[in-house]
What does this fold into?
Amino acid sequence: MMLKVIGSLIVIMTSACGGIVAAEHIRDQYGQMRYLQKLIYRLRSEIFYSRAYLGEAFQQIAVSSKEPYKSWMKQLAEQTERRTGGVFSIIWEENTRKYLADAGLPKDVLDRLSALGGQFGIADIEMQVRTLDLYLEELNLSMEEQHETMNSRIRLYRCLGVMSGIFVTILLI
It folds into this structure.
């Protein structure tokens, strides 16, 4: 009987931890989106105010960025400077998918970010800034949607973790 109680508690605690991990994943996604927003604002500032060309702007941003964004920006700077990898849009998309695939960004945000390079790589400074502004507006909308549902989803995942543990325990007993 004591083993059943201990086993039941272990099952419930394990599934509750699974719910907590799922909830933290949602919170981390939002944090990654906020960090990406900060980087895009910095890129916009480097282009608009400093009048830096893209390779130089990427290098400046990489200095103070955290991983994996640091590696992403360094690689973009290096390939943009050397012109290796062909057209800028291809360099942008390949590096974005390579370095940020596991960054914790939602798929739709990552897809829009990958497509961004094709829209602003060849334009003049004003057009690049407008393109970045448009992307930032889209990112803000995604962040608002995520934030509106975040707290309820976090509570839901935690509750589902505990409830599924209780359900499995009842089935096992």
